[in-house]
Amino acid sequence: MASQVIWARDVRGKTRQEIDPEFRWNLEDIYPDQEAWREDAHRVRALAEAFAEFRGRLNTSGETLLQALQAHDELGQILAKLFVYAKMKLDEDATESWRQALFAEAQRLAAEIQATTSFFYPELVQLAQEQVEGWLKTVEGLGLYGFFLEETLRQRDHVLTPAQEELLAQFSEVLHAPSEIFEMYNNADTVFPVIRDENGEDVQVTHALYHELLERRDRGVRERAFHAVYDTYKKHRNTIAALYAASVKRNTVSARVRRYPSALDAALDGDRIPRSVYENLIGAVRESVPALQSYLALRKRALGLDELHMWDLYVPLVGEIDWKVPYAEARETVLRAVEVFGEAYASAAREGLYGRWVDVYETRGKRSGGYSWGTYGTHPYILLNYTDSVQDMFTLAHELGHSMHSYFSRKTQPYIYSDYTIFVAEVASTVNEAILYDHLLGREEDPLRRAYLLNRQVETIRTTLVAQTLYAEFEKGTHERIESGGAITADWLDETFYELNRAYYAPAVTVDDDIAHGWMRIPHFYSAFYVYKYATGISAALALVEKIRREGGDAVARYLQFLSGGSSNTSIELLRLAGVDMTSEAPVHQALERFKRLTAELADLLAAR
């Protein structure tokens, strides 16, 4: 059936001023105004000039090294606040030029300071191991930096000379251009068409509304929304292919310059993750394709379809339920669910969700999707584009998990260890989603709603573990293509993405031609080798939730220690201390077994109707 598309002017929701302040985040908690921001910008420039006096002196004494490390921390804290504020101001409305200018100023400032301080890590890695070990024993206060220094010296072979690092720093702003251009295109310039809904009314398709439209019972609405989005992207496929190719080339060149075997190895090394973790993930999920096919066959039967298409993958299988969750209800439901983590967690979460940490609704020019952000010295912030769907309630729980991880890490750890690696970043968020599922299932007796929730759990595993692994396999292929001397073109990207979707979804799904263009929609592809961490994250999270279910308070205590650990140990070791060994294939296989078990339970419920 041909898609029905009606073009219209950009009508992307309300302005920010039309939204109650209760539902807008309060960035004044960071800076009261731009004047205060610029005062800190002036201050950080002065600190950077003073820091430059440490050039060539890090090896003179342990006391000098300690002073440099402390000065570097102070500089980093202020610069991070400046950058985070400017970026979140831009994310509020990317169409306003003053916001673009402020963020551009923050980028220039970051690049300028990076260039001024670029000598620091190259000089650190040249320190003699024995000398550092001696200073750690004799210089009071330096012991705090022991793990940081160990991790830094470990990467000695991949840090260039001070002159080379300074030169690379000069190019930092340019090297980020592909992701920034794509973000401006995707958030500020991309306008999807208006389609007709099930009532014959015109609906403006937006980033936030798209997923809600794919959950509509009316199949025609789903198909029209699908084609509206993909028809828009493919008009610019050659431009976006050039952007993505530039991003991949940047990654491969950077890895080569820093003497890594590949871009994948470079990405994994920062978190000290064995390459086998990435490859085992892809292998395990590939082995699980029969289980995926069984679920897709169930979906096809439950929907009563002769053919299952890509636009049929998100609609709930329980059609009798029209389950809308206003934000106020979602907020309270999530807060009750996380009470399982104890008073300290629950009270901090309540403070955040009622204390203007969250920017709730879609407004004109606002960044799409959702995230949790902030930095040391600020409370966490959450960006949403809430549309009253059940999925949006789970998104709130997800982003709150990130925020609580940040909250406890920053509260417990000194600045140097206050952040956590990307590898563990998706664990806390996915734990929250699973806990919310348990909370809802535990109080729900209606078979239809239980079936709906089981369907959502299965879908969470499919979209987080299976689909993100598909994306991870795509990223691995694109980078290997460049590293082997090949070229990335729009046609090659389309063909590669299409064949991966066929490998995962066919024959249960009729893999529509338009899905070949799906790579154009994924902002995370511009942060290379990020998406696999969603897949490993859900595997670790489900293992932790099982331990909390079985062991209660002891497991909760270990989990809170994990949340408070920041980067004070390696990612693998922090998870191991919490009770999960990610060097083993067991957590991935456990998650996939859960997928099969839930699918079977869902099939029984649907059959009993």
Automatic annotation (TrEMBL):
Transmembrane segments: none annotated. InterPro entries: OligopepF_N_dom (IPR013647), OligoPept_F_C (IPR042088), Pept_M3A_M3B (IPR045090), Pept_M3A_M3B_dom (IPR001567), Peptidase_M3B (IPR004438). Keywords: Hydrolase, Metal-binding, Metalloprotease, Protease, Zinc. Pfam families: Peptidase_M3, Peptidase_M3_N. It comes from the Bacteria. Residues 213-592 form the Peptidase M3A/M3B catalytic domain. Residues 123-192 form the Oligopeptidase F N-terminal domain. Its EC number is 3.4.24.-. SUPFAM superfamilies: Metalloproteases ('zincins'), catalytic domain (SSF55486). Gene3D superfamilies: Oligoendopeptidase f, C-terminal domain, Oligopeptidase f, N-terminal domain, putative peptidase helix hairpin domain like. Coiled coil: none annotated. Its cofactor is Zn(2+). Binds 1 zinc ion. Has oligopeptidase activity and degrades a variety of small bioactive peptides. PANTHER family: PROTEASE M3 THIMET OLIGOPEPTIDASE-RELATED, SACCHAROLYSIN. Belongs to the peptidase M3B family. This is Oligopeptidase F. The gene is pepF.
